Amino acid sequence: MIKKQLIMEKALELFARQGFEATSVQQITEHCGISKGAFYLSFKSKDELIIALIDHFMMQFTSDIDYIVRCAISDEELLYKFYYEAFQSFHKHSDFAKIIMKEQSQTLNKELILKTQYYDKLIENIILSMIERIYGEEVKETKYDLIYCVKGFMNIYSQLILFYNIPLDLKLLSESLVEKTNLLARHTTVPFISQELIQVFTQPMNEEVTKEQILEILEQRIDEIEEPIVKESVILLKQQLLEPTFSPAIVRGLLENIKNHPHCKWISYLLRRYFDF
């Protein structure tokens, strides 16, 4: 196992039990069986480790729901697939999700707040594109309110998954929320959140990632990947960025090759946005 990955996995175990503040670098290194020097070769500080964990999990979550929205063939099934994927991800990463929900309500760490806000805005953009695709002009005046309704459903119902140790029928939950969302979309007539207000909310959002930044991330990923097909696909996608020669069908195929690899979820998300797939 790569030492950086080992530190992240072992630190997550401690954070889940003790929280961010109560966990020291000394405890993390002891739990990993490594020296402090080895830790600082991978991370400059505990805060950098925390940000890396947030990036790791939020990149996967954001990429997965973005893929569902962009690649769903049927508009009728899109909302169901979105909810199901979101709650399945909450269940899969429940330990980390619990930490984030707890820390967000307590932290004064500005970098942590900005990082969570960044991913929150990415998720809002994905939800907006889904709402516009499903309902179109029908929700022209209320679509921004709907974004917050969908986020509210995700937040409240995810707590059933995270904080109650009982089996839940994710299929039934998703079907129930599809019905609720459809009712709101088709019968809400008094909008509250305007386009002007949403622009105020999104002003702190980071600028769009540039081609040069994507190329830099690609270079990093190439060194981390061992699987031949995935590695070759990433190399070809890098070539496509530098000098576009492949047809859209080939690019889509290359993106399919890498989308489920743990080191490629974020780059897959960035490339789908860049190529507008």
TrEMBL record:
It comes from the Bacteria. PROSITE patterns: HTH_TETR_2. Residues 24-43 bind DNA. Keywords: DNA-binding, Repressor. GO terms for molecular function: DNA binding. InterPro entries: Homeodomain-like_sf, HTH-type_Tx_Regulator, HTH_TetR. The keyword DNA-binding applies. Residues 1-61 form the HTH tetR-type domain. This is TetR/AcrR family transcriptional regulator. It comes from Cytobacillus dafuensis.
